[in-house]
Amino acid sequence: MSRDLVFAYPGELETRTGGYGYDRRAVAALRDLGWNVELISLGDGFPNPAAKQLDEAGGRLSGLADDSLVLIDGLAFGAMDEWAGREAKRLKITALVHHPLALETGLDSKQQQAAAAREKAALAHTRGVIVTSHATAAELAANYAIPADKITVAIPGMDPAPLAVGGGDPPLILSVGTLTHRKGHDILISSLEKLRDLPWTCRIVGSKMLDPGIAAELERQVAQSGLANRIELAGQIDDTRPEFAKADIFALASRYEGYGMVFAEALAQGLPIVGCAAGAVPDVVPKSAGFLVPPDDPDAFAAALRRLLEEPETRISMADAAAIAGAGLPSWRDTAVIISGFLETAP
After folding, report:
1. Structure confidence at residue 346 (pLDDT)
2. What is the DSSP letter of 101?
3. Which of 84, 124, 262, 286 has the highest CB neighbour number within 10 Å of its CB?
4. Kindly report the CA angle at 223 between 221 and 224, in degrees rounded to 5?
């Protein structure tokens, strides 16, 4: 089989999110395995493109030669059901689904139903689907009518990184995630307001540009909390490994994660974790390495943080367990080998 692959994605591949990070590293690792990967940007506006944007995106792919093998990021592909229906017999279409679009937070029931229907229709026209977690695989099999043998799980790889040294005075709580509603930074800040009696500082690292409205709301929330001298919205940082290395606790109150690469990064650098039992997070974070509480529950999140702040022995034990779990995570080459094998065998 030819090792020529077209990888199509929305927007800019250098966008600093976990999904785009996965795309970049997977493409690089596939090239190391001998794949000739052609990159095609499908433009902006996804997952809710205007009609003109959608037509232009489809046009870029419809110009490909017959029998081209095409892997399309699900953030765009979930909206391309009509295009997929026209081209499925001519092109070898596969999809990379980080998480179903209908599970994005902030959608009302009508929007969820519409997103699910479109993505289900689009996925029906694929030769196969690559997902980044077992939770997403189960979701597609149960609710999107994708046969299990058409799905492969290729969880994100992990780079070697230094273990966190901890021991901060006061302890440093680190959160990493774009300033969007789904990442739940508002819940984290509300939780920290309940812990003002304890010594700590918090550093929230993540782009403010993907949703400027949410970023502005979070800035107001920090100012109104009276904790602006203890909570820092640090913005985007390209290499976050030094951030993990100097922290004592990792905390992210995501309302949903298709995988949650930052949780794996926290494990790899030996940080105890406070998160939410949402999406694939329970698959990533072992119980020995952190506390997972219900989403949208500032009281429960604060209680978990309080335990790690007040119980050094618990913090150390969970840090050790995190490091052990992190050492068992796959490399990006491991991830690419799974993707490569699937692309070679998909009908």
Report:
1. 74
2. G
3. 262
4. 65
Q: Which CATH superfamily hosts domain 4-157+330-345?
A: Glycogen Phosphorylase B; (3.40.50.2000)
Mapping DSSP to helix (H, G, I), strand (E, B) and coil, where does residue 129 land?
A: strand
Q: Are strands 172-176 and 201-205 parallel, antiparallel or unpaired?
A: parallel
Prior bond to 170 cis, omega within 30? yes
Distance CA(75)–CA(95), nearest Å, equals 10
Tell me phi and psi for residue 294, to 5 degrees. -65, 145
Q: Do domains 4-157+330-345 and 172-327 have the same CATH topology?
A: yes
* 73: pLDDT strictly greater than 90: yes
Q: Where are the domains of the chain?
A: 4-157+330-345, 172-327
Q: What are the tens digits of pLDDT across the range 35-47?
A: 999 999 999 999 9
CA–CA separation, 97 vs 146, rounded Å?
A: 12
Q: How many CB atoms lie within 10 A of CB 3?
A: 15
Backbone phi and psi for residue 325, each to the nearest 5 degrees, phi listed first: -65, -40
| 8 Å CB contact between 257 and 105 | no
Assigned fold of 172-327 = Rossmann fold (3.40.50)
Query: pLDDT of 83-105, one tens digit each?
Result: 999 999 999 999 999 999 998 87
For 224-246, the pLDDT digits (tens) are 999 999 999 999 999 999 999 99
